[in-house]
Structure formats: C-alpha cells, structure tokens
Amino acid sequence: MQIIAHINYYHVCKRKLWLFANGINMEHTSDIVAEGKLIGETSYSERSGKYTEVEIDGVKIDFYDARNKVVHEVKKSDKIERAHVAQVKYYIYKLLVNGVEGVSGQIEYPKMRQTEIVKLCEDDILEIREWEKEIERIVNDEICPPLLRKGICKKCSYYDFCYVEEES
Length: 168
Ligand code: SF4
Description:
47% of the residues lie in helices and 17% in strands. The chain is an alpha+beta fold. The chain has a single domain, classed as Lambda Exonuclease, Chain A (Alpha-Beta Complex). Strands 1-2-3-4-5 form a 5-stranded mixed β-sheet. Helix 1 (2-12) packs antiparallel against helix 2 (14-21), helix 1 packs across helix 4 and helix 2 (14-21) crosses helix 5 (122-140). It starts with a helix and ends with a helix. Mean pLDDT is 88; it is low at 30-39. Bound molecules: iron/sulfur cluster.
C-alpha cells in the first residue's frame, strides 16, 4: 500500500507525497477504502472467480487475471487520471521485473462505464525507475515541497493543513 500510495501521490502532488511519507496523514482512509470496495464488489461480484490477488515486492494487486495476463483495477473517479494509469503501469512493471512478461492492464471506471487499456513500453520502464529515484529523494528531503496551487487542492484531504499553514 505504501509504495502504491507514493506512486499515486507523486503523480498528483509532490507536497502530498512528502506529507504522507513523513507521517502527516489526513486521508479519510476508511471512507476511501469503503467506497472503493463497494464499487469493486459491485462490479466484480460475478467475475471475481477469474481473478487472483497477487502480492509482489510488497505491492498488492487485487485483481490479476493470470490466464490472460491482465491486471484489473477499478476506480470510483469520474475521470481518467494520470495517477491511475501510473499505478497500473507500476503493477505491470513489478510483474515484469519478477519474470512475468506480456502483462497489460485495464482500468474500469464504473461511474463512466468506461475502460482504459494500459500497456507498458520500454520508455515507461525507464520512467518508472526515475519515479522511484525521485520519490526516494522527495520523501527524504528535509524541506516540504511548495503548495501546488491547483484546482485539485480543494478536493485534497490536506487542503486545510496546506492553506492554514500558509496563512499563519
Ligand atoms: S492541498 Fe494541494 S498542495 Fe496541499 S497536498 Fe493537497 S494537492 Fe498538494
């Protein structure tokens, strides 16, 4: 969970990554997990027999179709986000470096009734190695990255923390 959260936050906001990794946790995890789980259960209830849960290098993949070599992910979001694609690419990468080749990914968005296909290319592998290095550097930096100042801040669980801190 930790590394996947880091990959996700790295793509959303570097400051969020730093805050989370340094123990400042404002996420309402139970709500997020509950909603995600509900959507996951609803969408996968009839098909769950196809999938296995895989844990690899501490990364848990909830729905892996081993026969067809497809990683499935369900997102409650109503838009396709870069961070979702990054997460699934990271799953595929982890499988690859552990000897499982030819895997692709599918991200399902039940709210939009849409599926995003994810593939991992050579450039992605180089990029992922850069993400890992950058994440390591950011989380170990003594200085918290600056405010993002984007629209997503309003929906972020750190909003009060970030903007109150700025005013004080
Ligand atoms: S409120 Fe904005 S700046 Fe602060 S952690 Fe969230 S996204 Fe980043």
